[in-house]
């Protein structure tokens, strides 16, 4: 009755070789080269090509298109890669949970360099306070959005390909604003129109160098020649060079708000220009199945909702010469020219009659704590009007001989007898 299970004659046994070739296929698709995939696994490029060929033979479709520069996925290969990556990611996370004793693995974040430094890191402590059990690992990119070549859970990128990439959504838009230091603005005449920046020293990010052409094209001006300009590897380095007075940088208004508020940078033109890309939030396939990834996604959405702010207005110096000078106002509020009336200073407390005429507030100062000097001793009426204390001083002895005396005093009679020669030493007058 319960005999052995009958296998239909047209059924094919599962091919275990397909599962063995999936990691090699994913590495070749992520790196775009059989040679690079072989280096990752420690095998030759021919071994990777053989396993990919076996996978294509088992599936009956062509996954890669070979060319002189490497390999490129076909349309069927890209669709198959998403499923393979979701499967491998789930297996990797299951292995991590078993190794960690059931604890959820760490959250792997990738963010564009300027967002990681200026926006994400200062806010990340709030997320950790709400989710202390989640371990976070943050990496940065250099402007290249290549989710197929990175192992990540959440990626905050600056790209214009949010609609064409699955599991991606726009966080907030960005505005481009040319900024420079107040010292550089005093050296040059303030630009009246965008084409005047052709004569200024410009700074640019190597990954976003076309943004200057986008900004000039928005104003209907020919792009500036960037051959004499200075380029930097990251946006943060470009901003620091602008703060040092090296040139004009095309800053992201949302990322340089601190420098603008502190007066380290001043915008040259108000309004700003919408950037050709946006900050997007991308999650890896299958990552939203984890509660930690969903919690981080919801937290980032809330933080990005308050990011929208009006673009900075241009700072215009007062009359007295473009670019500053003695009559220019400083961006921080100081500088020459007429000062704005500040709050009235409270009146000084009146002096109290006691303790030498010093007020209680004055007595609390180091100078006020010192005792007042004693008044000079009064003059006595006798002996020419000189007090005994004053007669013992050198000035008192000199004044004693020249002070006028009453004619009937003992000192006057002695002087008269001394001048007449009748007074001898040892004799009384």
Q: Which characteristics define this entry?
A:
D-Maltodextrin-Binding Protein, domain 2, nine-stranded mixed sheet, Arc Repressor Mutant, subunit A, elongated, alpha/beta, 429 residues, 37% helix, disordered N terminus, two-stranded antiparallel ribbon
Question: Any overview of this molecule?
Answer:
By secondary structure, the protein is of the alpha/beta class. Among the domains are: 14-102, Arc Repressor Mutant, subunit A (Orthogonal Bundle); 154-305, Periplasmic binding protein-like II (D-Maltodextrin-Binding Protein, domain 2). It has 15 helices and 11 strands. It has helices spanning 16-31, 34-41, 45-59, 75-99, 113-130, 182-187, 210-218, 235-243, 257-261, 291-305, 360-363, 366-369, 388-391, 394-402, 410-420, and strands spanning 64-67, 70-73, 107-112, 136-141, 154-159, 168-180, 202-205, 230-232, 248-252, 266-267, 273-283. The strands form 2 sheets. Strands 3, 4, 5, 6, 7, 8, 9, 10 and 11 form a 9-stranded mixed beta sheet that branches. A two-stranded antiparallel sheet has the order 1-2. A hairpin with a 2-residue loop joins β1 and β2 (70-73). The chain is elongated.
Could you outline the blueprint of secondary structure elements for this entry?
Blueprint: H1 16-31, H2 34-41, H3 45-59, E1 64-67, E2 70-73, H4 75-99, E3 107-112, H5 113-130, E4 136-141, E5 154-159, E6 168-180, H6 182-187, E7 202-205, H7 210-218, E8 230-232, H8 235-243, E9 248-252, H9 257-261, E10 266-267, E11 273-283, H10 291-305, H11 360-363, H12 366-369, H13 388-391, H14 394-402, H15 410-420
Parallel strand pairs: 3-4, 3-5, 7-8, 7-9
Antiparallel strand pairs: 1-2, 5-11, 6-9, 6-10, 6-11
Helix pairs in contact: 1-2, 1-3, 1-4, 2-3
